[in-house]
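As described in the Methods, two query proteins were run sequentially through the folding procedure within a single session, without resetting any intermediate state between them. The first query and its resulting structure tokens are shown here.
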Amino acid sequence: MSLIFLLVYIFTVLWFTVLKRPTGYHVARFELFWSYKRWFAGDTDLGNEIMANIAMFIPFGFLVSSVLPTSNHKSRVAVITGTAILFSFTIEMLQMFLMRGLFEWDDVFSNTLGAVIGSGLFILVRMLASEKLRMTLITSISLVFMIVCLGVYIHGRGASGVEADTTSRAYCFQIDEALVHDGKVELNGFAFRYDHPMGTPKLLLHSTDNGEPIMLNMEYGLARPDVNDYFLCDRDYTNVGFTASGEAEDGEYEVLIQWPLTVPLSTGVFISSAGVHYFPEESFAAPNIDAEFIAAGIPRVYLPDCHCWVYQYHNDLYWIADQDFNFEEDNTTYIQYQMWTTQIQNLPEKRLENNWFWDNIGGYFEKYEIDGDFGDYRVMKREIPTAYSVTSIVTGYYKNGEWIWKNYFRPIYSFPGGETNEHQPLK
């Protein structure tokens, strides 16, 4: 019976960590304990992920223990540790090579820790329960684990949601100019990884029409001192510029980047004959507002189910909400607004005192709401900070200490000494 429970558990874990996940998010983090360092520095989101990874493997340790013939506790823990490492490593490799997640050694460590805890729970039951009660307790706990797994599987089969673009915190990517015309594609921009040796990436196009992949010819390592000056830190980002070209029929393409030792990653950037944009043209609907920040701005967040948009115009962000947005009646609609940076030393003193790696200048929508002829829409405006480089922005609706929704994105950069026009093709 315990073996059946174990097989149900293994299938459920594989379903949710590999099979159910959509393709398109895939990166590797080989630095050990990087997520723990950020958790201890105050990143509660990563802390929650770590605790979830530990909890997920507690049943594994208990159920595997229940099917092992050995009664030696040291041997049992050793076997559990080895099998947990193997199972977790298999999941991580599947996620990376099937383009369905993030490969992390930290996940393997957290999973293994959870399995050891589960094994400890099994040993505790064997030691404290009488021989008559022991099998009943083991079977009951195993049955609870199986019921939970089945419930999670049944409940989650029809669930869908938008995962945060956490790749924005792993690498920087921007296309400054793009041309898709007469069967040819030309791009230029810059790309680099924040925390890892960069190597030379490859660029691919993914047709939004038929899914056809197209590999581009890429020249990487072009001098971009303007980029290095903005992100200035202990790493050198000078030679991160690129040009790329290839042949492709007129249409819309998502741009993918492939770093060494990774599969292609979604950049969240799309190109067509209209230039560069950040959402598929067919699925995006702009708010019906006659305003310069809409006409000349760049949409960075689009959440139609939440009735919200975020536009960037010059160095300002505009949060736009329609009449169906869930505003608080007492004017306390809190919009979280966090910035990640390569220049931690330039963060406000209160962040450094708490060992935070990011800044937070969130506030009430109603406090920062601007006046204007916006029809059925309401608009909030905030500046993008200039005291430090901004690598990634996290924004969302925050209520009672929890995210109702959130979204990660990179700002669009325009550096001194050069004009960046994201909507125009190359001349």
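Immediately afterward, the second query was submitted; its sequence and tokens are:
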Amino acid sequence: MLESAKSTFSPDILYVADGYFKKGEKAPLHYHDTIEISIVLKGPSHYYINHQHYLVNTGDIIILNPYTLHYEEETEDVSHHMHLGIDNFQFLGYDKNVIPIQTPIIRPQHSNYLKQLVERLLDEKKEARLYQETTIQLLTTDFLILILREIDKQQLPIHPMNQKEKDKTILANSIKHYLETHHSEDISLESLSSSMYISPTYMSKLFKQETGESPINYLIKVRMEKAKELLKQNQYSIKEIANLVGYQDAYHFSKLFKKSTGISPSEYMKGLPLIS
């Protein structure tokens, strides 16, 4: 059973956002550095979470732990969501600001009551009222407790402290996937971190912890392996291959290739068996 690490349950409410998505609209890939919990007030809608697609419907709950890459896309009609950001939140035996889940999508048994609670919450936000902040805090806490009870009821046991490490691995794999599929583009540490919606410092540290090397070194390895494949085809000049794997300067490419393999690209080509 999940238990709060504190004697009282009083997380900080960072924001309560009311969001509508029209057909054809798509949010950019992003993440949050705290927990975000969303409820679908009118569906269906499409969520892409850590490169996995989820179709969500009215009443569904989406749990996003910190640094979970995601975006929303609407392909059918207008969808309506409420997004709740929370901080200063911890379960006994787990890292701060981590909800231990097996899946990010929860389908609660009492979705109608939750919807009514959220509608009261959104109505309370519409205009300034006496004790408005206190009321919002109470309604939000009630909503959170109901969600956490649903998670506690539905989720299979998960090993304590593993969720945050799992999220880091997923994020590192997302960076690797991006580098492997965009290796021909002009990529810098800054542009890569911007694409991942992560600070360059945090991204470099996380990636090195997970893979043992920097993102740029990994990119060079990917490019050199692709260059070898192209050299084997014997269809392109060294300058063309340099451009195809993301280098505008053939001399710089040749230096990196020799550093990686011990021989130059032209020597590598000469050592290949002739293909008739």
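Residues 132-154 form the longest helix (23 residues). We note this only descriptively and draw no conclusion about the first query from it.
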